[in-house]
């Protein structure tokens, strides 16, 4: 196994611990509000903070956000 | 709720079959284009057709849950992106068992794999100990599989959980690990200091 993979896994684990908060959104809740985040229409500042935190801690949900942002860019609806 | 150029939920639910068919066709065309743009070359034409069809069905089935907070097309595209990502992630890991992924993840954080700095090695030993002694079996397997690179959606699917339930399982595991590290003399500040670029 490469040192890069080891370093990445160790870093991911330590980062997830450093970022642990009392209140967090889970992936289901993040995805439920993803369209609102991408459209800039989140209902409250508190929800925005929770969404931004989830983006930092969950690479997969952040990947979904980036793809969605690309997918709807330049639409004319 | 903000107005959009067309009322998607009304048209998709219309009793007039022509109106509904036209809305479904428009939705299919929109989602296919959005997926092609979002995923660039990751999806073949056949993949695009299959994923789009699945996404159209899901959007149609869930249309009554749309709350109008975002644009309908963004909401529908989010569902489509999730369908496509789930399929891609499933394919990438279909030959890897959860147990093998967990074993790979465990090897990646073995203390021997962290020799470059004494304090870092100590932390990895403490983490390994915490994983072995403070987590439930399910938390341990899920965490190690995730560390190996297996996506949450795949781990959740194999464990017959929603991604949200898996997140909660791992969240509880993180809290247990933090407690274990604290008992072994590592504070959050110690962790943050070893993880430059992350705010404590």
Task: Report the sheet with the most strands of chain B, covering strand number, pairing sense and barrel closure.
Answer: none
Order of helices and strands of chain A: HHHHH
Strand content of chain B: under 5%
Give the overall average pLDDT of chain A: 92
Question: How would a crystallographer describe the biggest sheet of chain A?
Answer: none
H and E order of chain B: HHHHHHHHHH
The averaged pLDDT of chain B comes out at 90
In total, how many beta strands of chain A?
0
Distance between the termini of chain B: 38 Å
N/C terminus separation of chain A: 48 Å
Helix content of chain A: over 70%
What does this structure look like?
With 77 residues, chain A is mostly helical. Chain A is built from five helices and no strands. The model of chain A has no long low-confidence stretch (mean pLDDT 92). By secondary structure, chain B is mainly alpha-helical. Chain B contains ten helices and no strands. Chain B has helices at residues 8-12, 17-39, 45-62, 72-92, 98-108, 118-134, 137-147, 152-158, 163-183, 188-193. In chain B, helix 2 crosses helix 3, helix 6 packs across helix 9 and helix 8 crosses helix 9 (163-183). Chain B starts with 7 loop residues before the first helix and ends in a 7-residue tail after the last helix. At the A-B interface, helix 1, helix 2, helix 3 and helix 5 of A face helix 2, helix 4, helix 5, helix 6 and helix 9 of B.
């Amino acid at each position: 196994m490469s040192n890069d993979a080891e370093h990445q896994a160790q870093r991911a684990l330590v980062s997830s611990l450093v970022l642990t908060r009392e209140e967090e959104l889970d992936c289901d809740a993040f995805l439920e509000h993803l369209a609102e985040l991408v459209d800039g229409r989140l209902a409250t500042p508190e929800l925005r903070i929770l969404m931004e935190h989830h983006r930092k801690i969950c690479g997969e949900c952040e990947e979904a956000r980036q793809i969605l942002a690309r997918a709807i860019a330049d639409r004319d609806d | 709720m903000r107005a959009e150029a067309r009322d998607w939920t009304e048209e998709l639910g219309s009793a007039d079959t022509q109106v509904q068919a036209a809305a479904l066709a428009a939705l299919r065309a929109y989602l296919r284009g959005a997926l092609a743009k979002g995923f660039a070359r990751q999806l073949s034409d056949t993949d695009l057709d299959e994923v789009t069809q699945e996404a159209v069905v899901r959007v149609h089935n869930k249309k009554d849950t749309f709350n109008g907070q975002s644009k309908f097309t963004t909401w529908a595209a989010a569902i489509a992106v999730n369908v496509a990502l789930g399929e891609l992630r499933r394919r990438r890991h279909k030959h890897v068992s959860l147990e093998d992924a967990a074993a790979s993840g465990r090897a990646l954080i073995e203390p021997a794999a962290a020799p470059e700095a004494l304090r870092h090695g100590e932390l990895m030993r403490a983490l390994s100990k915490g994983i072995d002694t403070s987590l439930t079996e399910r938390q341990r397997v899920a965490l190690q599989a995730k560390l190996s690179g297996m996506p949450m959606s795949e781990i959740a699917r194999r464990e017959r959980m929603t991604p949200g339930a898996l997140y909660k399982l791992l969240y509880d595991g993180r809290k247990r690990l933090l407690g274990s590290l604290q008992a072994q003399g590592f504070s959050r500040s110690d962790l943050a200091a070893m993880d430059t670029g992350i705010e404590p």
